[in-house]
Description:
The chain is an alpha+beta fold and 460 residues long. It has helices spanning 23-30, 57-70, 109-120, 156-171, 183-191, 193-212, 237-250, 254-270, 313-327, 335-349, 378-386, 428-447, 450-453; strands at residues 2-12, 17-19, 44-50, 76-77, 88-90, 93-102, 131-138, 141-150, 228-236, 274-282, 297-305, 357-361, 389-396, 405-411, 415-422. The chain folds into two domains: 2-186, 2-Layer Sandwich (Chloramphenicol Acetyltransferase), CATH 3.30.559.10; 209-455, Chloramphenicol Acetyltransferase (2-Layer Sandwich). It has a seven-stranded mixed β-sheet with strand order 11-10-12-14-15-9-13. Strands 1-6-7-8-3 form a five-stranded mixed β-sheet, with helices on both faces. It has a three-stranded antiparallel β-sheet with strand order 2-5-4, with helices on one face.
Amino acid sequence: MRQIARHDVVFVAGTAGEHELTWSQKAHAREGCHPHLHGPRNRNQRMARALDGAPDMAAVLHAFAAVMAHFEALRTLYPRDADGRPRAVVVASGVLQVDEYTSDGPATSDELSALTLRLAEPGFGPDDLPLRAVVVTVDGRPLHLALSLHHFSADTTAARIVAERLARLAADPGADLGTGWQPRQIASFEGSPSGLRHAHRVDAHDRAMLRQSAMPELLVPGSHRGALYNFVCLDSAAVALAAAGLAKQYRTSVAAVLQAAYACVLAEHLGIAKCVFNTVMANRQTTFAREAVAHVAGRALVPVDTSLGSERFPALCRAVDAALVSSSSVSLREPERYARSLDEASDELGRSADNPYVVNIRPIAPRTLIRARVDRAQQDFERALASSRYGRFPKSVDTYAGKLCFVVWDMSETAGISLGTDATSFDATDLERILRSFERRLVGTAIGGHVARSGSFAGA
């Protein structure tokens, strides 16, 4: 794979101006994100995506111009003021450089991953646009996009949204990008009286939830150097089928079904009956359709009473769904107030309040999940289970050190589930056991009595 061209994409938008940093951007700064540096502290979000159809390079470049004009976060520069603090300045126009790489054949995921990493390595200057992009072509035909986004401007979900919009517009230049909150609107709301009142409600909610938590604290390594961070990943069509079927059957959300099953398995593994999850949610005008890139970090503490158990799984799913709905507005905080509140809550609890278990479940609409594919026949689940893939790999510890992190990274034909934690809390074998139990519990609940008569799931 080699670079053969560099294209200048000119974008012009109707909005510009300066605004306060959003809560999410301030949180990145507080957590030690240094996006202007070289090396590992230069944290960016990277994304690769195949292009649908057969767009030409002109259509792809047009898509970049339209997406840059649509998303204010991609047009935001971060110069520093006299005190060295970053400001957010949205520009109305500019030029994005898009590199064209050619490959002898379709790029592999490893090659695309390496390419996105190279894009992030130089770091982003305060006057750089927060997006770098590559189009990979084979015989002159664009096949893949590779993106690296400045961490102040996007999370993983937002990077995926940008890639999806680019691919959609490349295939259909007239496609509608929709509307959504922009960073200036978010910052304005956060500073408004209603936004501040909401932040205070969040503080009261989180304190109450933390007091109810029976979740044991995970260990935090004394030194990040040399510490291992274990990940275990599951790619399972059976989980997707079961989650879709149960959500429809119980008239609840897929997110609630997944979290209920995970809560049961984790409580069983740890020997506890109640827990509080730190659930990362989108704070959007519509829950299932986030259009803006910059976002408010939506973190809501949700109590889960696992004593309902598997025999009352429908009731547990509905209880979790109700908790998620009631907590969905609990997603804005004043960073300084929040930091003080965590310290005060830690004193109340006698342990760190900054260590709840994290559940990242992307907004999932049951109606769009595997349309007309929910067949609860036992043999279909057996075939799906036979194709399940598990993987494990260690990496250096990062910002999730000491936390058990549950991430649903896709819900389409398969459900990708990742668990990760510092090796001092759980090793990879523990995590794999939890994931296998999670899959078995969902599938067993979905097919009902069949699971007792089948040996297919023994040791699944």
